[in-house]
Structures are given as structure tokens and as C-alpha cells.
Amino acid sequence: MTDVEPHSTDHYSDAALDHLTRPRNAGTLAQPSGTGADANPSCGDRTVITVAVSDGHVQAVRFRTFGCTAAIASASVLTELAVGLPVDDAARLEPADILNALGGLPARKESCALMAIGALRGALLDASVRAPR
Amino acid sequence: MRRVYLDHAATTPVDPEVALLMAQVLREVPGNPSSIYAEGRRARALVDRAREEVAQAIGADPAEIVFTSGGTEADNLALRGVLKAREGEADGIVTTAIEHHAVLDTAHDLEAHGQARVSVIGVDRDGRVAPAAVGAAIDDRTAIVSVMHGNNEIGTLQPIAAIGAICRERGVTFHSDAVQTVGALEIDVRSLAVDLLSVNAHKFYGPKGVGALYVRTGTRIATVQTGGGQEKGRRTGTENVAGVVGLGAALRIAAARRVTESARQAALRDTLIAGIRARIPEATLTGHPTDRLPNNASFCFRGTQGEALVVSLDLEGFSVSSGSACTSGNTDPSHVLLALGLERDLAQGSLRLTLGRSTSDADVDALLAVLPPIVARLRAASGIAA
Fold first, then answer.
1. What is the ipTM of this complex?
2. Which residues are paired to B93 by β-bridges?
3. Which among A45, A69, A111 is the top mutation candidate for probing chain B, defined by the most B β-carbons within 10 Å of its own β-carbon?
4. Cα B95 to Cα B102, B117, B146, B222, B269, distances in angstroms
């Protein structure tokens, strides 16, 4: 008999699904050093990230995402990637880092990683502008 | 994990009796219905019997049934066929904002190619079309009015008989896409006053890829595809014998079960709707509160996004769908939900639960147990409280 369960690659990784069901660092910092937001106007998804920065390092990150599985998982995993990093290193995180950490996203969803990065960079920029010199 | 299938508006599993019958036809009936020797005659007899079964289920004459490859082709044949038959004398299409893409996109495609003028009628907050609005949109060059019977997303039923009466009085051909209602509700094409009605086998436990268009005797309609002249020239191409047999059998079985099964599903639907409203704050029921498909419970949950709801429920073993599928990366919320006047953000959080023969009280209870924490989690992640 011919196999009727052909292999499908267009699905979420276990890691992405884990971030959907157990989002890390969801919420908003009460007194953030900086706040950044990004949106995908084509689908209405949006993410807000707040960061706490001190001693040149990212001490804490929180995210809020209104959006699909990929959008939530991207922001959630990004908070884990960014926390503890020197600010300059956090600002250099890229969508590819999110995709690596999640074990990939369905091809049509890769722009969701870009939205999370945009929100984080905005928050770090906001923190640098606000920081006392 | 036990799976609970609650997406019967998308498709239904093939009835085991239908599957057996189709397999038997595939194995034992090799003939082409157009051949005049024994194998062909046998295939022809099966197609004829299926035509009678479909006709009987909707109150039509067998000669008024045209087999197609499904609901989309039936809708295309209705609109394109009528416009083509009336070329040079009438070019107006009157339809509604909540039609299936098979109708709306066909109408707009005809318009884009200069073959039709399209008037799209809005709906009220419950998704209902006002018959008077249809009457007002008809002019002396209107060729066809197309209004669906039951909406696939929100379940709202339209006053088809009243609209049909207006069309008949005005002498305009009336088409209804009844893909969601055939098999679930009593359909009598005479009392509905429809000239054309689309039927799709896989919505009532028949096979995918086969459907029918009811064409009332005397309706002016031209063929869309050309070829060997099957189906009295109205839909040419060798008949899908096994599929057509499956369509006929599935509709015969559905008609026999309809009264008890639709009442059973409607009671479960009401339990589901009441349970969701009791357990989840700001659960917005979409569609008409009472005049809706017996198996449809559809909601929007502010602060959630439909794809995340669907994926989360899938992980818990439930197969459901959303009007905001977000599959292409460029997804507007469903045109149906926007036509209701829902704001975009609210429309994003849509969830459609559609029950079927297999749905039990326990399935509904299980869904009611898992859905509230999922909505709460997504609302917590979005920060958009109810």
C-alpha cells in the first residue's frame, strides 16, 4: 500500500509550541529603562518590549504580543536570548538568532521574528536615549 | 491523545457506508457512462440513480441536477453560465458582502474583465441580508442575484424564500450557495424559489471533489467549459462515477438522519455557546443568535489572535478553525467578520467550532474545560484584557 502520511515540513517546532503554551517573560516592566514596539501592518500583529538596563547589561526583558503563534514564540524566546547580554550584543541580535533558538519557523512566518527584533532594538535605543550621561 | 474534530464546516469525514459503496464502484464499474455497451450502461445507471437521490433530497426533478467537481465549480457555473447566457442583454450581479470567495471572487473576476457590474449588499450585525435591500439593488439589467443560504463562518441563515420571491417577481435569476445547509436543513427548491442552488458532497459526509448545481427547468444558463457535452451540455467532461455515487448516497443518508441529527447538534451547539459565554469574559458570539446553522458556534475573543487559538487547541487535541487564518503573512481578518462591523482587532480573535455526527456531550465538556485557560493565556501575553 502507498503511504498516506507524507512528511510535512510546514509546521511549528516543538520549541515554538512550548513558547506558545508557556510564554517566558510575558508582561511589562513597571519601571523600564526603555520601551520599544513593532507591528506587522499587513496582519495586525504587534509586540511591545520593555527592558531594564544597568551596568551596560540587559538585566530584565518583558514582552507583550498580540499575534499568532510565531509572533508570540519569537518575542518570548527573544527575551531569553537578550537577558544578561551586554547592551551592544543584545542590539546585534538578529531574526536568524530567533530562528536558530526556535529550531526554525514555517517559511511564511519568518517575518514574525523580525517584528520581535524591531521591538527589542527600539527598547534598547529608547533606554540609551533616556540613560543619564 | 484523543482527537476531537470540531471543524465540520470545513469538511466532514466520509460516511463508512458511502466509502464502501464508492470503493465498490471503483473496483467493479470500469465503464464510461457515455458508452452504450454493458459496462457503460451500468455506469450510466449508477449516475442516474445518484441524480435521482440528489433531486429527491432537495425537491427537484432529476433533469435539473448538474454534477460538478464541488461547490466552487457549482458557484462558478451559476454566475458565469448565467452571465454568458444573457450576454448583451443583462450584466448585473447582485450579491452580498458575506458570500464565500467562490461567489465573491467570481463576481469580481467577471467585473474585472468587463463582463459584469457587481452590486454587493451589506449585512446587519448578525450577518443578515435584508430582502428589501436585494430588491433595491436589482435593476433592469440585473442578470443574477446570488445569496448564500447558511454562512460558513458565522452560521447565519438568510431569508432565502423571501429573497427568492422578490427575484421571481422581478424576473431575475436567483442563485443560492447552499453548501452549508444541504444535508443539515430541509431544502425544498420550489418553496425557496431558487433557480440555481449549489451543493457540495464533502459537507454532508460525502467525498471531496464532487458537487452539484440545481438548475431549475427553464433557467437560461450557458456552459462554461466545452468538450464532449456531458450533463446535457451544461457541464461537459466524463462523469466522476464513484464520486457522484458517493454524493447521492451521502445525501440520501443525511436526509434520512437530518431531523434527529440536526436537533441533537443544535442542542449541543446551544450548550457550547452558553458554556463559553459563562466561562469566558467578553466572548462575542458572531452570527445570528438563533437563526444559525445547527452545528455552528462562532466567537471572537478580544486580545487573542485566531491562529494562536487554533494552534493552542490543536495541541490539546481539538481541530477547530478561525476566520483569521493568517496563512500568507498578509492576512486581513475575514471579510465576513468585517462585514458585520466588527473592529479589526476583535475580528482577529475569531474561533469557529462546528459540530458533527461524531460530536458528543463529552466533547463539548472537554472543549469547555480547555478553552478558557487558553484564552486567558493569550490575553495575558497580549496584555489586552477582556
1. 0.93
2. B118, B144
3. A69
4. 12, 11, 5, 20, 29
In b/e form, how buried is each residue of B348-367, taking b as 16+ CB within 10 angstroms? bbbbbbbbbbebeeebbebb
In words, the CATH class of domain A14-125 is: alpha beta
At B199, is the secondary structure helix, strand, or coil?
strand
The 3-state DSSP class for residue B333 equals: coil
Measured distance CA(B63)–CA(A12) in Å, rounded: 49
pTM for the structure as a whole: 0.95
End-to-end CA distance of chain A: 72
**Residue B367 to residue B280: CA distance in whole angstroms:** 12
Residue in chain B closest to A70 (alpha carbons) equals B308
* Angle CA B41–B43–B48, to nearest 5: 90
At B75, list the grid cell: 458557484
Distance from CA of A45 to the nearest CA of B (A): 8
Active site residue B300: no
B36-84 pLDDT per residue, tens: 999 999 999 999 999 999 999 999 999 999 999 999 999 999 999 999 9
**Residues in B touching A108 (Cβ below 8 Å):** 327-329
Smallest Cβ distance to A64: which of B311, B377, B382?
Answer: B382
Query: Which amino acid, B255?
Result: A
C-alpha cell, B108: 469580481
3 state DSSP class of B386? coil
* DSSP label of B303: T
Q: Which three cell numbers stand for residue B130?
A: 435584508
Nearest to A11 by CA among A64, A65, A73, A63: A73
Sorted by where each begins, the domain ranges of chain B are 4-11+258-382, 16-253
State the cell numbers at B206. Answer: 460525502
Among the listed residues B326, B338, B368, B384, the single catalytic one is B326
Phi and psi, residue A102, nearest 5°: -90, -5
B43, B330 contact by CB (below 8 A): no
Say which CATH class B16-253 falls into: alpha beta
Q: Is 60 exceeded by the pLDDT of residue B358?
A: yes
B330 to A43: CB separation less than 8 angstroms, yes or no? yes
Domain positions in chain A = 14-125
Query: What is the CATH T-level fold of the domain B4-11+258-382, as seen in this structure?
Result: Aspartate Aminotransferase, domain 1 (3.90.1150)
